[in-house]
Prior knowledge:
Blueprint: H1 5-9, E1 18-21, H2 26-30, E2 38-39, E3 45-49, H3 58-63, E4 68-71, H4 74-78, H5 89-99, E5 103-108, H6 117-137, E6 147-150, H7 163-184, E7 189-195, H8 200-206, E8 226-231, H9 241-269, E9 279-285, H10 305-319, E10 331-335, E11 352-353, E12 362-363, H11 365-377, E13 384-386, E14 389-390, E15 397-404, E16 409-416, E17 423-428, E18 440-443, E19 450-456, E20 460-467, E21 472-479, H12 480-484, E22 490-493, E23 500-501
Parallel strand pairs: 1-23, 3-4, 3-10, 4-5, 5-6, 6-7, 7-8, 8-9, 9-10, 17-18
Antiparallel strand pairs: 1-19, 2-13, 11-12, 13-15, 14-18, 15-16, 16-20, 17-19, 20-21, 21-22
Amino acid sequence: xxxxxxxxRFSAMFAFAxxxxxxxxxxxxxxxxxxxxxxVSPLLIGQSYWFDLPNSVWPVVGAxxxxxxxxxxxxxxxxxxxxxxxxxxxxxxxxxxxxxGAEPIIQVSNxxxxxxxxxxxxxxxxxxxxxxxxxxxxxxxxxxxxxxxIGNEPDGAHRSDTDAQIAALIAGYITAVAPAMRDVDPNIxxxxxxxxxxxxxxxxxxxxGASDITGTDSQGRYYVDEITVHSYPFGGAAYTLSDxxxxxxxxxxxxxxxxxxEINTANALNNRTGSHALTWGLTEFNITFNNFATNNxxxxxxxxxxxxxxxxSLYGSGMGTTTAAGQSIHNMNSWSVNEGGGECxxxxxxxxxxxxxxxxxxxxxxxxxxxxxxKYLLSGRDPSYLAPISSQAAxxxxxxxxxxxxxxxxxxxxxxxxxxxxxxxxLRMDSDPVRxxxxxxxxxxxxxxREYFDTIPAESTIVLIFNAQGQLTTKVTYTLxxxxxxxxxxxxxxxxxxxxxxxx
Length: 504
């Protein structure tokens, strides 16, 4: 652990989880509470799956805080689940998703190798009618399904085509399928184009360019409502911790900025304002699409402790990137619940270990980090995101922060991705220079002139909850040792205010 001489000298006064009181006038300032940040979508935390789960597993999924579940992927694209007037598999899945307090996204097919857009449109319209009309009327479903996506990774099946050709292909079927779906139910929300990763040469033409899918049909209805993309930054080639950190701190923020910039162009071109402004979402993501042979808790793959921290960092990037219309990311659906036998093999991209249909599944780090974000960072009323700045982001000392309850609560997640060293940090709750000790300085632009000091072991995550006066009320820890022991995060409620540091 890195500990400065300054810290060692005052170690008795800087007890674990001590609070620093900075200014004599700060108590009056505290009464105003924390500043609001960027509003967070209530459907941010999502999941994807592609085969039926046993009923016993759904409550586990729900406990992760999942709010939106996508029924989709390549299997559903080539062989969509049949919708019947009875409570068939698709209807049962919708029912199970709603029982855990979530809503479904249903994917309709874009497979056009053996079908023309007109037949795809007819099939999609029939699916919407079966779910939203027939099964609502016969009371198998209490109300219609709102979210529908068109297709899955069309770029994957046409990699030999140029970007312009792929964009034209996508526009061809979306402009046929979307109106047919709206003819059945004009109130649905349509997601597209579901590419396997962000590609400027394809998204540019689709978002206001030569193959625009963001305009209106002959009846003045917009084709799509949400622009979607998938992302698996690694797989197929070796990567390291530093590569993961670089993706978190550079690739994803920059990519999200590019995508939202193109959405701004499309909104302006097609006069999309207010409720018609485009939203955007990440409907599949994970750290990799192909685990290496060594995929364990201390590695860099899906089963690692690091992957959960990657999830949390990615949530922060999504929450912190907005369109000109003020839309931060609407939903982030990881892939997936459980697959590949749950044994950490190459194709196992689930957030639960252990095979289903057995009920004996075990949450992974990705599951618990998802739960931490949902349970603590997004638990209050009207949560909003505040973008932290860390002096040690390059070594994986990162933070994610939200304020809620009209400024009465600040929640900060501190991530130490360093797999060798613990760190000490001072966390300041406004944008002024950090004055406290430690090898890491973290600023949260929350508008309260107070600091907090703590230490964090290697490969660990801490969630800190502060009240409107900047006092710590809750501390939750989750470590590599917890993952290896199959323990959930440890919630340490604070019974009293720790001894404050002197006024600076």
